[in-house]
Amino acid sequence: MVRGARVVTLDPARRIVDADVTVTGGRITAIGTRRAAPGAATLDCTGMVLLPGLIQAHVHLCQTLFRGRADDLALESWLARRIWPLEAAHTEDSVYWSAMLGAAELLLSGTTAVLDMETVRHTGAAFQALESIGLRATAGKCLMDAADAFPGLREATDQALQETSDLCERWHGAAHGRLRYCVAPRFAPSCTGPLLRAASDLAERHGAVMHTHAAETPVELDLVRRATGMDELQYLESVGIAGPGAALAHCVWVDDDGIRNLARLGTNVVHCPSSNLKLGSGIAPVPAMLAAGCRVAIGADGAPCNNRLDAFSEMRLAALIQKPRHGPEALPAPRVLELATLGGARALGLADEIGSIEVGKRADLIALDLSGLHTQPEADLISSIVYAATAGDVRHVIVDGKVVVKNGGLRTGDVREIRREANRWAKYVARKAGL
After folding, report:
1. What are φ and ψ of residue 357, in 5° steps?
2. pTM of the model
3. Long-range contacts of 122-125 (CB under 8 A, 24+ apart)
């Protein structure tokens, strides 16, 4: 039982109530003042704010070890000169500790669920880390089979698809459903048409989410148009990567027709404001997308293009960057909080399971202490959460009914060990990559 908090439910009525939240078997079973069952554990959240766990629908946990090694580059140079050589240098151990470092940061800062694109190899090691540390994650091996894909990461089409199928069989629904698999072609220029079509079919057979990048830069759009004769979003639709089961990261360079099609198909767009600004990619037209009825979520992307994995930073920035162009009323705080909760749940295909505090949903919850001077005086609660709160305000985190962060401390991993091993393997990978 979580006692004494002010509960921001994000339910259909958007209720904010002073209530206890009862959790049984990993699910929310009651909201309201009641007596705890004999022997029930209690978490005292008196004076705190209880939120649904924040959800990031685009991250790269395999890149956490690369933080600070790929700054101030445009996307194409960032990939070719830094990220792809570093990913190619990964080992099973380095992927494991990269995922552990990223997952620990996410949990400590209030993110309870992610949609994660790994690298080409060693995805099983990332799942092992996620299973251990307790984050809810939908993750998948990156697919790259095009002739001009980075040589150290390019795979034969059949090999890539077979490993994807094997990983999906092993991990989709693991850890009592907390872990799920996504089919993750990197982006259209790095994949052949046959691979994209087969990947879409595979995802449909397994009930898995499709997760890729789209329309991030004009260079990407030009590459796809010259190769296919089609707009990138049209091309992805033609190979089956569209609709409620697909999550497209970025979508910075989409026109009005593209936005209408995204809305018509119900395709999930994942807005990554920090990454788009740091790489100089642009600003996604999120207000227009929302006005058209698009499904939009938020993500930090990877550590080397952000360099944080902090959903509070992403919420605040997502709201602020639209206002100079569209006016101060664009993307108000309540709408941004929805993107980081309900929008993420839709993108992960888990709208019935997470994203709000409602009876029957999984107990993914975070408790914030908003007594700090930076959130005072008390005024509008949602405004305080989006514009003023920080990752440092997170006190407790519950995932699937299990307390994974208590009093600001990680309970499912040794932070000192994670720091030590992450630094050791980051240096190893950088040396191996010649960087």
Report:
1. -100, 100
2. 0.97
3. 122/90, 122/91, 122/92, 122/95, 122/96, 123/95, 123/167, 124/92, 124/167, 124/170, 124/171, 125/92, 125/93, 125/95, 125/96, 125/99
Count the alpha carbons within 13 Å of 377 in the hemisphere toward its beta carbon: 1
Beta strands 402-406 and 111-117, pairing class: unpaired
If DSSP codes are grouped into helix, strand and coil, which group holds residue 225? helix
Report CA torsion sign: 148, 154, 155, 157. negative
Q: What is the DSSP letter of 178?
A: T
Burial (Cβ within 10 Å: 0-12, 13-18, ≥19) of residue 324: exposed
> 148: which residues sit within 8 A by CB, 6+ positions away?
none
Q: Which two tokens stand for residue 54?
A: 């924040």
Identify whether the C-beta of residue 135 lies closer than 8 Å to the C-beta of residue 103. yes
Helix or strand or coil: residue 288?
A: helix
Rounded Cα distance, 209 and 200, in Å: 9
Strands 142-143 and 179-185: parallel
Listed in sequence order, the DSSP H helices in 50-145 are 75-77, 84-88, 92-108, 123-133
pLDDT in tens, the chain (435 residues): 999 999 999 999 999 999 999 999 999 999 997 776 777 899 999 999 999 999 999 999 999 999 999 999 999 999 999 999 999 999 999 999 999 999 999 999 999 999 999 999 999 999 999 999 999 999 999 999 998 888 899 999 999 999 999 999 999 999 999 999 999 999 999 999 999 999 999 999 999 999 999 999 999 999 999 999 999 999 999 999 999 999 999 999 999 999 999 999 999 999 999 999 999 999 999 999 999 999 999 999 999 999 999 999 999 999 999 999 999 999 999 999 999 999 999 999 999 999 999 999 999 999 999 999 999 999 999 999 999 999 999 999 999 999 999 999 999 999 999 999 999 999 999 999 999
Number of H helices, E strands in the chain: 17, 18
